[in-house]
Structure formats: C-alpha cells, structure tokens
Specification:
By secondary structure, the protein is of the alpha+beta class. The chain is built from two helices and eight strands; from the N terminus they run βββαβββββα.
Amino acid sequence: IHWIEAAANYVRLNTAKDSYLFRETMSRLSERLNPNHFIRIHRSVIVNVRVIKELIPVNCGEYVMVLHSGKELSCSRGYRANLQHLIGKNF
C-alpha cells in the first residue's frame, strides 16, 4: 500500500500498480495500521512512510508530499504535528 484515500463511505487503497476499494472508515482503518509505517497527513489521506520522497513546504505551515512514484499529496495544517514527528524521525 502506497497511500490510502477516503472515497465517500469507502477507502481506496493505492498500490504501485492498482487501487482497491473497501467499505471502511478512515478512522477505523488508521487505528489498525502500524504507526511506524503509516502516517495520516490529511483527514482523507494516509501515506506509507517508506514511499515518501520529499516534503515541500507551501504557505502557512502546509506541505506537499511527493512520493517516489511522483504522486503529490496535500498535507493539511491539522496534521502538522504528525509531519513534524516524521521529519524529526526520518528526514
């Protein structure tokens, strides 16, 4: 799994090649994921930390996260503490 995104009453699990839709909530799924491997960067996005290439700061404490695949994901200010923990730990 590279990243997970909310899709109405479902979550979409995105891998290197495919995506899979599951009926699950983001909060329930995030509770089941290993916090050492996955980080929530937005209310609708969870990312596998092993596929993060870089974090690019943008306005007002927000970031754009770039994955090794080139995919760009927005990080919201509400999850800034998660990102600061990640930066201190891995970057």
